[in-house]
Structure formats: C-alpha cells, structure tokens
Amino acid sequence: MPSEKAFTLNKLLHRIEASKDSFSETFAPLTQAQIRKIQKVSAFIARPTGRHDSSRSVVVLTEIWNCTPQVFVLCALTNSPSKFFRLCREAYLQKLIAWWDRVDHPAGLAQILDKYAYILPPKRRSTTFKSGSLASPLEGTTCTDSPLGALHIPAERGIKAPEIDEAVAQLSTTSCLHTYSRLTSYRLCNRNTD
C-alpha cells in the first residue's frame, strides 16, 4: 500500500492547479525563489544522469516540456524534479494534456515563457504544416522529439507553427536534411574508427 506522502499524478494535478491559480491575466515577475526552482528543473533535465530513477524523471519532465511548456513551468514551481520518475507507471502525459485542455490558461503564465526563456530548457518541438506543404503526410499531428522517440499529439491541441510559404519550407527542409545527413555520416565514421 503506497504511503500518504507518495508522489502521484493526482497530487501533482492538485499542486499545479493551485500554482496555476496564482497567475492572473496580467504579467507579474517571478520571485527569485521561483526563478531558482525553474532553473533547477531545467538544469536537471539537461544534465547526463546515471541513476535509473533520475533518468526516468528526466524523461517525464522532458516530455512534459515538449508537449505543454506552461505545465512544465507549473511542475517546476511545485515539485522536486527527482520525484517525477514515479509517474512513469501512469498515463501521466495524456492526463496532464487532458487537464490542461479543460482549464483556463492565464495570460500571465503564458508570458513567463517569453520573458524568462533564458531559464527554460531549449525548445525541441517540431511543427505541423498547412495542407499541401512538404509535410502533408503528417497533417493532423504534431511531432515532438522526446527521449522515448517521436510523440504525436493531435493537431487540435493547438500546437501549430505559423503559416510559412512553400519556398521557405523547401529551403528549411533541404537545410535540415543536409545537416542531418552530415551528422549521420560523422557518427558512422566515428563509430567505425573505434
């Protein structure tokens, strides 16, 4: 039987709901303590780890960041990063997304992502494209890089890129493919010399 102090998804949802309610429609600067908490979690998911529980916590937090950055901020403000490994046994991501879709999104919380981008992890989210673009086979989903592979989120979640014209999309795709090809060749060459 789990102890009363066990970290569960329900406890996490309760805490982040309370944290979300502390934000309003207008921007208010974070306190130094809040900045340190977010920096701690951002650094936690950026560092290499050898401990199994820490690795799972990194996976959970990275997926939360990639799918719902505002929820990541709420998680960072309310919980120790090392506790998140306990969520691996639950369908945490789907439940967090469903919760986020049901609640109001304070504008002040959204502005934290812009004003404090320097303390947040780098964005690793891919984008969806409009119909007829180069990525039209992926239409209707958003692909997010995660430590566990590609994660597809329904497009109605609202994570979409701004409209871009076809020439820019072609140039970007070509550049990305060229970079990927060079990195893959480099890795293969280095693997063969070991």
Rounded average pLDDT:
71
| Form type | globular
Written as H for each helix and E for each strand, in order along the chain, the element string is HHHHHHEEH
Based on DSSP secondary structure assignment, what is the total number of beta strands?
A: 2
Poorly predicted residue ranges: 125-157, 159-165, 167-194
Strand content: under 5%
Q: Give the structural class.
A: mainly alpha
Computed CA radius of gyration, to the nearest angstrom: 19 Å
Helix tally equals: 7
Helix content: 40-55%
Distance between the termini: 49 Å
- Biggest sheet, open or closed, and with what strands and sense? 2 strands, antiparallel
Q: Order of strands across the widest beta sheet?
A: 1-2
Could you write a compact summary of the structure shown?
This protein is mainly α and 194 residues long.
Any overview of this molecule?
The protein starts with 8 loop residues before the first helix and ends with a helix. It contains 7 helices and 2 strands, in the order ααααααββα. The protein is 53% helix and 4% strand. It is globular and about 40 Å long. It is mainly alpha-helical. Strand 1 and strand 2 form a beta hairpin. The C terminus is likely disordered. Helix 2 packs across helix 3, helix 3 crosses helix 4 and helix 3 packs parallel to helix 5. The chain has a two-stranded antiparallel sheet. The protein has a domain of 116 residues.
Keywords, please?
194 residues, mainly alpha, disordered C terminus
